[in-house]
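Dear Dr. K.,

Following up on our conversation at the group meeting, I've run the structure prediction for LysR family transcriptional regulator from Pseudomonas frederiksbergensis. I'm pasting the input sequence below exactly as I used it, so you can double-check it against your construct before we proceed with anything downstream. Let me know if the numbering doesn't match what you have in your notebook.
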Amino acid sequence: MIRDLNDTLVFVRVVRLGSFTAAAQALQIPKTTVSRRVRELEQAIGVQLLRRTTRQLSLTEAGAVYYEQCKDIAATLEHAELAVHQLRDGPRGWLRVTVPYSFGVSWFAPLVAGFRQAYPEIKLEILASHVPLDLVGEEIDVALRLGALPDSSLVARRLASYATGIYAAPEYIERHGAPVTPDALIQHCTLVLNQARRDVGYVWPLRKAGAKLRNYRVEPTIIANDPALLKDALLAGEGLSLGMDRSMQIDVEAGRLCRVLPQWIGPPQDLNAVTAREHLPSPKVTAFIKYLKERMSVSEISHDWTE
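The predicted structure tokens came back this morning:
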């Protein structure tokens, strides 16, 4: 039996940082103490965990197994200790957040500014990405994500649901006209996300009051992996696009876009605040999610929508 859990935590830190010296600096203890604790851990377990040479440090087979079993425990303890310190001192420190690259500054930036005013002791690092990032591997505290969340290792808290509709630039409508019914979409240039397989085809699920949900075939002329790219093409008059009303609002008011088939609505898009299941939510994470939830409506979708 291990006599001191601290020895295990020191071992995990050595492996994570790759050297005794780096671990000693991070833990703010002498290098000799780090080496001694790892050696005592090996003696307590009865196996060698690390191969030590003058040039490098590597795990033995037993060490690799032991590290895989202990790294999550160490991370949980570190987060628990951080949470206790933050409870004592209040939410503070760096908060690492990832958001979709397509998030517009017109509505997200004011939220960030307001949060900073409410919690001046919290500093934000924001990572915009076309693809979902690994929250654990990238050491991300919170991810804001749109749509379905298939990864069961994540914890999602819904912040809002946004209605969707079909939009086009006036220039496109002048050249090609506007579809009168959803069945006419197949005859138009459409801009779609690459979330469906090409061999199956692309469809837009639409419905209106008093009608059932139907999938309408579209023939895309532009396919992209991020809504921001489609938005640029949409504004350039390249075709029709199914998007969130919230993200189109400013351009509609400015006359750069107009709603097509306004009686028909698309599926709502949920906005979720996502955290890693293995990480305990710290006060700064809790404060951030609570702040966003209080300032976002969870009922912006049309009540006419049904699956």
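Two things stood out to me. DSSP finds nine helices and 13 strands in the chain. The longest strand covers residues 154-168.

Best regards,
J.T.
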